[in-house]
Specification:
This protein is an alpha+beta fold. Helix content is 17%, strand content 45%. The chain has a 17-stranded mixed beta sheet that branches. A hairpin with a 3-residue loop joins strand 9 (130-133) and strand 10 (137-142). It is globular.
């Protein structure tokens, strides 16, 4: 079967996206998904996304990691699929869609996608890191000299080590630039490598930096290897709400492949 696909990227986090509203894709074929994401033998991507019909919202997002397995929420992937839905004419500038972690609102403004993330009420603080779930689990740890930090080796050690073990966690290394600006590098489980950007990761970093008093601002700038993102939120005694991940999402190319 021939399949039309689109390649999107959001601050260097790249995805193969397919319109599956006719349910033509065999989603059990995880081997083929992994092959498509392979950067040498396939199209190459950090993840594979299907846009599908949903009875109660504008569309459904189904997300797979580069290893071919369906995964938890991907923030940059969520921003990219919103841009894709606009390209297809499914939405205009505002939308609600369903993903594995629940309902998301989003809006598009001159190529910048604003994606509302799930509320966060629980943050676990430890001596040298924080742990929280922003749709995907994230370990957040501050480091110095982040530009020369060994993200892949040290991230893998944390990702596979206790207490995360086989289930794993994404691992974010952070260095403060100014009061409301942080540099972030992320090791992503499922990709098993550093990615140029991670949407749920920078969301976790922004909240963790506020929680630990590194910033007092409720709008935080995050500098990733692939570009800059912003995270906005409201904070009160019940936790963090009205969380928005904001940044560009761009169609890179369109192609055909056999499934």
């Amino acid at each position: 079967m021939n399949m039309t696909f689109y390649k999107y990227q959001g601050t260097g986090n790249d995805f193969v996206i397919v319109d599956n509203r006719l349910n033509t894709i065999d989603k059990s074929n995880t081997k083929r998904i992994a092959e498509i994401c392979d950067r040498r033998f396939g199209v190459g991507a950090d993840g594979f996304i299907l846009l599908e019909n949903d009875d109660n919202t504008d569309f459904k997002m189904v997300y797979y990691n580069a290893d071919g397995n369906e995964s938890s929420m991907c923030g940059n992937g969520g921003r990219c699929i919103v841009a894709f839905a606009k390209f297809l004419g499914i939405i205009e500038n505002e939308t609600e869609f369903i993903a594995i972690d629940g309902l998301h609102s989003a809006k598009v403004d001159n190529g910048i996608v604003h994606l509302q993330m799930q509320d966060v009420s629980k943050i676990e603080s430890f001596k040298d890191h924080q742990f929280l779930d922003t749709g995907s689990p994230h370990h957040v740890e501050m480091v110095s000299n982040i530009s020369n930090f060994e993200v892949k080796s040290k991230g893998a050690k944390i990702r596979y080590g206790a207490p995360y073990n086989e289930a794993g966690s994404n691992v974010n290394f952070v260095e403060q630039i100014s009061d409301d600006n942080f540099a972030v590098r992320t090791y992503e489980r499922g990709v098993e490598d550093e990615t140029l950007s991670c949407g749920t990761g920078v969301t976790a970093v922004a909240i963790a930096m506020h929680k630990t008093g590194k910033t007092l601002n409720e709008k935080v700038k995050l500098k990733t290897q692939g570009g800059s993102l912003n995270v906005m939120f409201n904070f009160d005694d019940s936790g963090y709400s009205n969380i928005w991940l904001i940044g560009p999402a761009e169609q890179v190319f369109k192609g055909e492949m056999t499934w």
